[in-house]
Specification:
Elements: H1 2-15, H2 26-36, H3 44-54, E1 57-58, H4 64-67, H5 75-88, H6 105-111, E2 115-116, H7 123-132, E3 135-145, H8 150-153, E4 169-179, E5 183-191, E6 208-218, E7 221-233, E8 239-240, E9 261-263, E10 273-281, E11 285-296, E12 298-303, E13 308-314, H9 323-328, E14 332-345, E15 348-363, E16 377-391, E17 394-403, E18 407-419, E19 422-431, E20 452-464, E21 467-478, E22 489-500, E23 506-521, E24 531-547, E25 552-563, E26 571-582, E27 589-600, E28 607-608, E29 611-612, E30 618-619, E31 622-623, E32 626-637, E33 642-653, E34 670-681
Length: 682
């Protein structure tokens, strides 16, 4: 009965509540989370798009670098746009985009919220405006789980050896000054739940601090970064620290494209550099150099036999709650140096990239067979050459890299717009088992680019404005052993999605995906080193979105999962949710809500679902077992300078009495999370 009244209350809120536009990259982020089994904390792309809604991009001055900020633009889109402007001159009206080859109605609609047509500023005026007309803001976010986990209960137990000494709140504060994407500086401070605050292990206040200063287009200086920043080179074979998408229904989004240097103000405590970087040059020749001096978390092992400590892994969670986690914090000094030289002319790009890492302690992995090729030691150097070339409606790109001069890696792709209604995408990769990187993030099946061969082919067919068919196949092989795969193995992945949009109000899509990957198993169904065999997984999804009125949007999704049918670990799953968005025009209030039911046989048949959150926030939980999920997001703009968001989310299990495990275990069948965010524009 209590659940009924909670749901009824949420429905009432949702009726007076509102729609936050669903990001076009929702499915890509779901796929990243599913592949890595962890949620990304990189919200930089969300911040960039939000900035363009306030300070629209001038089409008459837009550079290739700026156009790469939009994840739904392919290299063919960008090259065709720049060639059109070069040939016909400045844009007079946004409607001219219809004449740019390859820019269909769907692409233009996605860009309209972020662009405008205007005249260019003089260098003097531009510099003055950067310093005086930027936006200053302070964002504060607090998250609190109402139920007390085991780690917090043990805090007052004098016999407990492991517990969370800090409070249950997670706090983020971010100050930022930004003028378009030309000048940005700010400070980010964050504390995770369980970490102390202004006492104990965190006497300086927050557990994590980040600061940055970043500027673009200052004469010969194309970009300069001080403090925290990310470096993205080539196709991610050796260095890519920003968010990068993988296989998804957006089959043309296979190329890594971003500026080499980017400002960093997200909350991940691992995927960034701390130091300085600069890019200088002209439109044809550019040189980038960077140096990073920072500490990282490492799992330290004391080797009494060698009288030398080493670390067995780099830790990426950023959690420093227990004594063991605090001991690993900043235990490794990780310095890196590198650079790029690139040539761009006549639709041709060629770049040479180098990055070198130096650690304060040796890196020694566990002595297990699948670690035979992993990096060991204190120094690692990667070098690569990347390229791209556009000829009419064909775009070829790739990167070839090496490690220690003998372990090779190559990835190469082709984007082809065969017809205004038909596009193709192809990607080939061949990466040796011995090829190793620290921040590699290429278009691969595995999390890191190593020990993989594969071929990806995708197509997007748009017979008219109402129908769209997208699909891909990916065939890959792991030539050497992997974790939980004690032999060379093969895999295959297929996806097809049909989308129907008969009018502006209604959109329906159905998607089917089937993947087969090898794993260890035995006759009892437990995975071990006995036999390696293919484990198939199938997923079918149907989603309907209907815009009832300019203010109200409804969305319904059905997801079904089949894992290893007729196999030793057969498992099935089902998930369904209903969303309501309410966003009245010219009103300060908006909100959205979700009611969801899920039921699976276990973790193997888990289903991921993207959840709307506060501004700049998102979450992609994995749902398994049986239960309900419901949340409500409310936003109120008190003025143009002050906005507040509130989120309440609850997870109720029907077939278990605890939530979580270990120190995160809650001895109840539910978990409730409250979040408040305040944005103050100075």
């Amino acid at each position: 009965m209590k659940q009924f009244f909670v749901i009824l209350f949420l429905v009432f809120l949702a009726y007076h509540s509102s729609a936050q536009e669903n990001p076009t990259t929702e499915q890509q982020i779901e796929n990243i989370t599913e592949a890595d089994e962890s949620e990304t904390e990189d919200d930089s792309y969300v911040q960039a798009l939000q900035q363009y809604t306030k300070n629209k991009l001038n089409l008459n001055t837009a550079t290739e670098t700026e156009l790469k900020d939009f994840p739904f633009l392919t290299p063919i889109h960008i090259d065709n746009f720049l060639n059109y402007r070069r040939l016909f001159g400045k844009f007079i009206n946004l409607y001219e985009l219809q004449a740019v080859p390859g820019w269909d109605v769907n692409t233009i609609q996605k860009m309209l919220p972020y662009i405008m047509v205007g005249s260019a500023l003089s260098v003097k005026d531009d510099f003055r405006i950067r310093l005086k007309q930027g936006e200053q803001s302070i964002l504060s976010r607090a998250t609190y789980v109402l139920e007390e986990a085991e780690g917090f209960k043990r805090k007052n137990d004098t016999s407990a050896t492991s517990f969370y000494p800090g409070g249950r709140e997670r706090v983020l504060i971010r100050y930022k000054y930004q003028y378009r994407n030309l000048l940005q500086y700010g400070i980010t401070a964050e504390k995770d739940a369980g970490e102390q605050w202004f006492k104990g292990a965190q006497k300086n206040g927050f557990d994590f601090y980040s600061a940055h200063l970043f500027a673009r287009n200052i004469g010969i200086i194309k970009a300069i970064a001080l403090g925290d920043f990310t470096v993205n080179m080539g196709q991610g074979l050796m260095q890519w620290q920003s968010l990068a998408f993988r296989k998804s229904v957006d089959v043309l989004n296979t190329k890594r494209q971003a500026t080499i240097l980017r400002p960093y103000n997200s909350t991940s405590e691992y995927f960034f550099n701390r130091g300085a970087g600069v890019t200088v040059g002209n439109d044809k020749l550019q040189v980038t150099a960077f140096a990073s001096f920072r500490k990282a978390d490492g799992n330290i092992v004391i080797d009494t036999a060698r009288a030398e400590d080493f670390f067995s892994s780099l830790l990426t969670s950023g959690l420093h709650r227990t004594k063991n986690e605090q001991a690993d914090k900043n235990s490794i000094r990780m310095n890196s140096f590198g650079g790029n030289v690139s040539y761009n002319a006549n639709n041709l790009h060629v770049g040479v990239n180098v990055v070198h890492f130096q650690f304060s302690k040796p890196f020694e992995r566990d002595s297990v067979p699948y670690n035979n090729f992993t990096f060991r030691g204190t120094r690692l150097t990667n070098a690569s050459v990347d390229w791209s070339y556009t000829w009419r409606n064909l775009h070829w790109f790739g990167e070839a890299a090496n490690h220690r001069g003998k372990y090779k890696a190559v990835t190469s792709g082709l984007l082809l717009s065969a017809d205004p209604k038909v596009d193709f995408s192809f990607v080939y990769r061949n990466i040796a088992p011995g090829y190793q990187t620290i921040f590699g993030n290429a278009f691969t099946e595995g999390t890191f680019p190593n020990n993989e061969k594969g071929f990806f082919a995708g197509t997007s067919i748009k017979p008219n404005s109402k129908w769209r068919l997208d699909g891909y196949m990916d065939l890959y092989r792991f030539p050497y052993l992997r974790f939980r795969i004690d032999a060379p193995s093969n895999g295959k992945d297929f996806l097809v999605q049909l989308t129907h949009k008969p009018n502006k109000q209604l959109e329906i899509y159905t998607r089917y995906r089937q993947e087969s990957r090898a794993l260890n198993f035995n006759a009892d169904g437990e995975f071990n080193s006995a036999v390696v065999d293919a484990v198939p997984r199938k997923n079918w999804r149907v989603q309907v979105q209907y815009k009832v009125s300019p203010e109200i949007t409804l969305r319904q999704r059905l997801d079904a999962m089949w894992y290893d049918l007729k196999g030793p670990r057969e498992s099935r799953g089902f998930l369904s949710f209903f969303d309501v968005f309410y966003k009245p025009m010219l009103k300060p209030f908006s909100a959205n809500m979700r009611l969801q039911y899920f039921e699976t046989d276990g973790f193997d048949s888990r289903i991921y679902a993207y959840e709307n959150d506060v501004l700049y926030g998102f979450s992609i939980p994995a749902f398994f077992n049986k239960g309900f999920r419901y949340y409500t997001n409310v936003n109120y703009d008190f003025s143009k300078k002050l906005s507040v968001w509130f989120r309440l989310a609850r997870l109720d299990y029907l077939n278990q009495t605890v939530v979580g495990s270990g120190l995160d275990e809650i001895p109840k069948n539910h978990r409730t999370e409250a979040r408040v965010q305040i944005l103050w524009k100075l």
